[in-house]
Amino acid sequence: MTKVNKWTLGLAAVGLVSLPAMVQAEEKPNQLLTALSSTTISGYVDTSAQWTLGSGNANPPPYSYNTPAKQDGFNVNVVDITLEKPLDEGTWSAGYKVELWFGPNASGLGNDSGLSDTGGNDVALKQGYVALRAPVGNGIDIKIGTWDTIIGYEVANSGSNPNYTRSYGYTIEPTSQSGVLASYQVSKVVGISGGVANLWSPGIGGGVERSPRSESKKTYLGAITLTAPDSFGDFAGSALYAGVVDGYNTAVENDVTSYYLGATLATPIKALKVGAAWDYLVGHDNSFVAAGNVRANGGYAQSIALYASVQATEKLSLHARGEWFKSSLGDDVTAPPANIQTSEIWALTGTLQYDLWANVLTRLEIRWDHISGGDRFGGNNLNNGSGTASKQDEVIIAANVIYKF
């Protein structure tokens, strides 16, 4: 009988190697191989080079993942590794998904794994949930664990977005929740989802993983998607999306509510698609004593973004985004960093994408940000500098290369 070591069997189980037919017939499968037979491994490596025009990088525009350390240099943004067993159609099926992030962007997720030995949060659990399907009606899909938030035009995985840099709308949204989420496709036109989570914000390994206000305080979220059917002709496939997330934000110890409305529109010009997104985040005026401090803050932050994408050729595409952002939130309320609170920002982003290599996404991007209310960007962050902001406008040029496997 042909012998195969356990390492080779393990690789075969996840589809990384193939075994000869005779070996497959002779080796008696064990429970582990059976369980792993439908598991897939995927992921990507996200790298970039970023140049900030002018001098001074202490205070870059603080949209998500744009830190001072990324300016004027080369970056490994994140390495993503995903293990997943997809659900089967039309049965009482079960599966799972585990998605891990390694690298600087992991700290922006808010789900600290506690595995880093460098004092930072460069290893994070992006998603980890059990997936269930109940064959009721068209099928109810259920996630139990930590999963990506259900609102937003953009997502955490950069390669799935039209632009490399993130919008301010994405910046003020939660990235994930931990709880139970159910989704149901009512028809080809209508899809709904709803769930209950511990927090508005992520809470894995961050110290506070649920609301301390009461044992019954939870976060509630829901969304609806409307998709244009084939009868809409040139506009078929267009979608309108609305959602809300309301709950306790552990980072600032206050209640917040996120409202989201977004749309993608197909056009009579087949190569052109446009989109729009509105994010509104409100901090509620409610007092709470925590660690000796009284939190009693309100205010809001909102963002409007317009998108346009043109598929010029099979490999070449062009993407544009225009944004307006305004905030009146204080330090104790929610997401906007200190240098954009009580501010108004305009931003324009243009991205050229050319897919020359198989499995590789390559992008060149230029972005301009303008902030009102005085100098909030720039500032010398060298040893002989004060780091004080010195300008209202910031322009960056970035190259982004992502390998997907």
Put simply, the count of helices is 4
Q: Looking at this structure, what is the CATH superfamily of the largest domain? A: Porin
**Any idea what the radius of gyration is?**
23 Å
Give the class from helix and strand content and strand pairing. Answer: mainly beta
Share of helix, binned: under 10%
Strand order of the largest sheet: 1-2-3-4-5-6-7-8-9-10-11-14-15-16-17-18
- Assign the CATH architecture of the largest domain: Beta Barrel
CATH classification class of the largest domain: Mainly Beta
Listing every helix as H and every strand as E from the N terminus to the C terminus, the arrangement reads: HHHEEEEEHEEEEEEEEEEEEE
Shape: globular
Oligomeric state: single chain
Largest beta-sheet details = 16 strands, antiparallel, barrel
- The count of DSSP E runs of length 2 or more, i.e. the number of strands, is 18
